[in-house]
Amino acid sequence: PDGDGLTWNKAPCRFCGTGCHVQVGVEDGRVVAIAGDKAADVNKGLLCVKGYHVGGILYGKDRLTTPLLRRDGKLVEIDWDEAIEIIAQRIYDAPDKFAFYGSGQWTIPEGYAAQKLMKGGLSNNHIDPNARLCMASAVTGFLATYGVDEPAGCYQDLDECDVLITWGNNPAEMHPVLFSRVTDRRSRGETIRIIDIGTRRTRTTDAATDYLEMKPHGDVAIALGIMHLLIKNESYDKSFVEKHCAFRGDEADTPTLQGEAITEEHFRERIAKYTPEHVEELSGVPADQIRMLADLFGDRDARITSLWCMGMNQHTMGTAINSLVHGVHLLSGHFGRPGDAPTSLTGQPSACGTVREVGTLAHALPGGRLIAKPEHRAQCEEFWNLRPGAINDTPGYHTVKMFEQFTKPTAEGGDITTLFVQVTNPGQTLPNLNALFNDKQGLEDKFLIVSEVYPTATTQLADLILPAAMWVEKNGVYGNSERRTQQWFKMVDPPGQARDDAWMTIAIARKLFDMGHEGMRDKDGEFIFSVKDENGDEVPVWQYDHYYDVNVDKHLFEEYRQFTRMKHKNLAPYDEYVKARGLRWPVVEQPDGSWRETRFRFSGFDDPFVAEGQEFDFYHSTSGDGRAQIWFHEYHPPPEVPDEEYPLWLCTGRVLEHWHTGTMTRRLSPLNRAMPTAYVEMHPDDAKSANIRQGETVVIQSRRGAAELPVWIDGRGKPPRGTIFVPFFDETKLINNCTLEAFDPFSKQPDYKKGVDMNKLA
Ligand code: SF4
């Protein structure tokens, strides 16, 4: 945009992990226009309906603008000094009873600051992000397969594939601009086969060439069935496997994430029982369609990209199914060429950047370091200039455990008494909400702090609410699903006293420093978040008015960047991101001083860390020999299945118009008018047999709780008989009261999708 009198600047979209770039038009200190950014590779000027309305998220009528403290059951306004003092005092009094719950919507500097405060400053690893609920199984799948997290390929795979397989994934609604890269190719006359494997028909199915309807949990069997046929028919890529892969399985009574090395022969024996007919029994997908998939993978000429997101991650076998789909690609050699890729997507804009790369998970440290490894802790202590042993050697509580410990009375062993939530809404997203938050007694000593932009299901539970700045009201850096790190600058002021989350973290740290907390000083006695100006003088950024005297984001980013070299996830200097529309790591400096990004990791033609002359090199291989791991995992049934009492499967998820819990999109009237309420999708025959008519309100009742919802028969999504679907965006209809807490054993990610919940209509 040009010549219209507005000031325009770039930013990534605030919503999903696609990471489209927008141009933000500002006039008189207010965002007044949004345009797709034509200079951005990701979206080439296009946005989805959420992206076009993203500017409006700043201007909902009920923005939180001042700190609020609950006194005698009522929220009263207090000033920031008092709010920071209350928090610091609680931490000072009981540092190991404090927990921090964050998000894949934290900017990279915000997540880094929170992580440093906790793990470096407080010797406390009880920090975990909401991404535990959405992509933790993708992380463990990547680690188990390649020894290092995040996709090897990038979005270019969608421009070059011949076949796109969506595994329990609905990108037409959840990552619409990304999916449009495929449909756009079709509209230009290219032939792309889209195979949708799902538990209900969606808008992705509308565009699909083939729809394979599976039973909940059936994906594990399907992947095993493909591998069985590739082996049986000798149609796997022997050369690729021989040179670049090893076989692995979970043989022990108590399986581990690393598993055990197995021979190819042993792999053949174990996979032998997953015949197409057996897979049909387990998955519901006809044996011929399993053969069709195996034939496709057996064809070396076709380029095949697999896409997945929550369908495979929110799964009690999440790590297993992630590893198995990687295994299908590795076994068949559909890996590492543009268009040949197993690729997971993220729901949040910086689940990769802030959670996975910064390492804000309870077991992790920045730079791919692990709490459990003494040498990793020592490395981080050295980087942070902390005394040896400053970092606690025990991993902290993962998300659900953290909330269990917080909502359990102290007398019964609930050892978290103060919980700080930033940029997320666990009062709507945690599984089995009833059990966590309702009818609790003996919690008088517990204290919930929530930093938010709008009132939410979580602020209703809070003792202290902090008004947060959002998106272009602050500087930021995000990292999207394809390893692309994206920077933006503050463009408008936040309302009232709303402040950056990183500022809150640093202000609390400084208060603790002033109170004499030893963890807030490094070995030289300096404040651990000390920010110096160009003259070397400290800038008191923890004071309300000084945060933007220097670019604190740049300062934190440059410090964090040192960690990124530890696991070949190298980032460029901050100023390179100011110029670019994001860069995909690893980014390495060239002899002429420019910085080059990487599109295809582990492939010799593009990855700078692959040794000269090598075609592929899995340089973080868990077997230590440059090989990726092809996993065998036995199919295990879901933890619950429908029965007479609870005869229907429940699947939860999202809709195009609303992003996650609707905190932002529910304030955008065009989107909220388009999708004003959650609903239950139901097959017409199920509705008929229960005597339910279109639009009627029904009670969805599980063993854990209930929700009242209007019925949508033959709606946008079309579940088969025996399955219902409910979106979770609506805070007035909390479907997570019904969902079961059942986890993947390695990622600790709960299953909201399939195989865990049965419901009846009352
Ligand atoms: Fe924003 Fe995602 Fe839509 Fe792109 S696809 S405009 S990132 S919500």
Automatic annotation (TrEMBL):
Listed under GO cellular component are: membrane; nitrate reductase complex
**Residue ranges constituting the 4Fe-4S Mo/W bis-MGD-type domain according to the UniProt record:** 6-62
Say if the entry is tagged with keyword Iron-sulfur.
Answer: yes
List GO BP terms, alphabetically: nitrate assimilation
Q: Which GO terms describe its molecular function?
A: 4 iron, 4 sulfur cluster binding; molybdenum ion binding; molybdopterin cofactor binding; nitrate reductase activity
- Per the record, the domain of life is Eukaryota
Is Transcription tagged as a keyword?
no
| Keywords for the protein's UniProt record, in alphabetical order | 4Fe-4S, Electron transport, Iron, Iron-sulfur, Metal-binding, Molybdenum, Nitrate assimilation, Oxidoreductase, Signal, Transport
* Entry cofactors: Mo-bis(molybdopterin guanine dinucleotide); [4Fe-4S] cluster
Q: Which family does it belong to?
A: Belongs to the prokaryotic molybdopterin-containing oxidoreductase family. NasA/NapA/NarB subfamily.
Write the protein's name: 4Fe-4S Mo/W bis-MGD-type domain-containing protein
- From which residue to which, out of the full length, is covered? 26 to 787 of 1045
